[in-house]
Write a structure and sequence with these properties.
About 75% of the residues lie in helices and about 0% in strands. With about 90 residues, the chain is mainly α. The relative contact order is 0.04. The mean pLDDT is about 85.
């Protein structure tokens, strides 16, 4: 188990309001009545899972190689600053 959660739980989740609403909907049969409308979404999710759409390889194919643009700017600025400082110190200020 993780020490910290990625997201803070909502107030409804902490007070078990969400759990109560789900239980009531299940007892009233609303969940079963809406089941046919979820069939397409569930089938699509199963298909994506089967072909590896959300795997590391699938994400790499969809998004391309990672581009460290933000980090690269910081490295270039720091490198320039270090080079300028070395030049100034070498000349004796």
């Amino acid at each position: 188990m993780k020490l910290f959660r990625y997201r803070r739980p909502s107030l409804n989740a902490l007070l078990d309001i969400t759990k109560a609403k789900k239980r009531i909907k299940k007892e009233l049969g609303i969940t079963d009545a809406l089941k046919p409308f979820r069939a397409w979404t569930n089938a699509k999710r199963r298909f994506k899972r089967k072909i590896g759409y959300e795997s590391e390889a699938g994400r790499l194919i969809r998004n391309g190689l990672p581009r460290p643009g933000g980090c690269l700017v910081v490295v270039v600025v720091l490198g320039t600053a270090v080079a300028m400082a070395a030049t100034v110190l070498a000349k004796g200020w």
